[in-house]
Amino acid sequence: ALQHLPSSAYIYARKGSIYYKTGYLQRATLNWNIALHLDPDYDAVRSMLICVKQELSDLAGIEN
Questions:
Q1: Beta-carbon-side half-sphere exposure of residue 36 (alpha carbons within 13 Å)
Q2: CA-based angle 57:62:64, to the nearest 5?
Q3: With a threshold of 0.85, does the pTM exceed it?
Q4: Closest by CA position to 48, among listed 62, 61, 34, 64
Q5: Using alpha carbons only, what angle is made at residue 28 by residues 34 and 42, rounded to the nearest 5 degrees?
Q6: 3-state secondary structure 13-53
Q7: pLDDT digits (tens, 9 = 90+) for 18-55
Q8: What is the largest CA-CA distance in the chain?
């Protein structure tokens, strides 16, 4: 899909979600950030990034 629509925020958002569901948070956030760069009004992606940031912050607090 990216070969045909390389500037599609939706595709990067879905790719990020797949990475997230398979445990690759860094790859997920990278793709979500690309999606936001392509479409700054993509609120669903912005919400996911906020949730992941909170999740990581919570985990850091548990480990310390």
A1: 15
A2: 95
A3: no
A4: 34
A5: 45
A6: HHHHHHHHHCCCHHHHHHHHHHHHHHCCCCHHHHHHHHHHH
A7: 999 999 999 999 999 999 999 999 999 999 999 999 98
A8: 45
